[in-house]
UniProtKB/TrEMBL annotation:
PROSITE patterns: THIOREDOXIN_2
CDD domains linked to this entry: TlpA_like_family
Lineage of the species this protein comes from: Bacteria, Fusobacteriati, Fusobacteriota, Fusobacteriia, Fusobacteriales
A Pfam cross-reference name: AhpC-TSA
Molecular function terms, GO-annotated: antioxidant activity; oxidoreductase activity
Source superkingdom: Bacteria
Protein name stated in the entry: Thiol-disulfide oxidoreductase resA
Length: 160
């Protein structure tokens, strides 16, 4: 009976966690007025992070992201960095200018609902097929992030 129960639990776990969820599509412009869609990034890894300017861990996370983007950003590696914010446009512009953020930032409240964001920062790792491979709620150290995206489910070349 124990073996049967174990086998049933194993089958259930594989069926639940074996199927990856397709990331929610979007068509939005960043602060540079460049349009972004998940469809255009098929074949590439996508890193999405949701943040606010009042969140201390978000600030730290964005400083790390700024460095990672400069090292590995658009047209340098096979990873796309996109960030989402849901604050007033004027406030967001001030933050971008003050911090000199050069990575794409998309201001859209609806995305926070579509991706079920309830804590900050929240990060989605999306594979080449547009499937969500991991969701991280909270801050993750830059070095830890480098290790995470190098693993077998999310292989990306990152400069050391």
């Amino acid at each position: 009976m124990k073996k049967l129960l174990f086998l049933l639990m194993l089958v259930y776990t594989i069926s639940v966690f074996g199927n990856l969820v397709t990331a929610t599509e979007f068509q939005l412009k960043d602060q540079f007025q460049k349009e972004h869609t998940l469809e255009q990034y098929k074949g590439k890894k996508v890193y999405l992070t949701f943040w606010t300017s009042w969140c201390g861990y978000c600030k730290k996370s964005l400083e790390d992201l700024k460095v990672l983007y400069e090292e590995n950003g658009e047209n340098k590696k096979n990873i796309i960095f996109l960030t989402f914010n849901d604050e007033e446009e004027a406030k967001l512009k001030d933050v971008i200018k003050e911090k000199n953020y050069n990575f794409p930032i998309i201001n859209d409240k609806i995305m926070f609902y579509k991706y079920y964001i309830d804590s900050y920062p929240t990060t989605y790792l999306i594979n080449e097929e547009g499937k969500v491979v991991q969701v991280i709620s909270g801050y993750i150290e830059k070095e830890e992030f480098k290790k995470l995206i190098k693993d077998q489910n999310y292989k990306v070349e990152i400069e050391e």
